[in-house]
Amino acid sequence: MTKTKTKRTGVMVLGILFIGLCVSFLRLSRFGVDPFSAMNLGISGFIGWSFGTWQLLVNAIILVVVFFQARSCIGAGTIINMVFVGYIADFICYVANDVVQIQMNLPLRILALLLAQLMASMGVALYMVADMGIAPYDSVAIIIEKLTHQKIPFHKARILSDVVVVIIGIIFAIASGEGIWSVVGIGTIINACFNGPLIQFFKTKLEMFYL
């Protein structure tokens, strides 16, 4: 493996780790998870599957669409992301809640929320810059931008897709009897509104440094 390939792989893995940490921190904060996780938590709770397993299936379905619409987005990072992020989040939440049994008081919940937002945007930006493939869901905004001939730029397309999946998550959370606050909250709103612009910001800065 060349030095450049090793560096890109390291950047990609770091980005995916950040995403897994982001999802787990959002779940631990109980302020609402990111939009894609909100949908998957809502549906997985409704059908009785684990979050990681359902997210893997959804990613596989989206990957089929990406294959035909934005094949350049697929790479090693795509597969690693779709397989491991959900299970990383499940594992960290298990350790925090069941093994260590951390008492998430309000200051810790706020800290977890802030760290999660930073990790979400930085994580996506990192593995996009590594250019070894991105998560199927993160390709959705790119596909929207492509199909609209850039009339809807990436950051706005990301907000649009985030709003749609949040609505789906709410519907399934209500149907399962868990209530909307089991999947959405202030953290979801913050993530939906700021993730796209922050990804673009970090991506631009990282490209200047990385390239």
TrEMBL record:
The chain crosses the membrane at residues 9-26, 46-67, 79-97, 109-129, 159-175, 181-202. Pfam families: DUF6198. InterPro entries: YczE/YyaS-like. Keywords: Membrane, Transmembrane, Transmembrane helix. This is YitT family protein. It comes from Dorea formicigenerans.
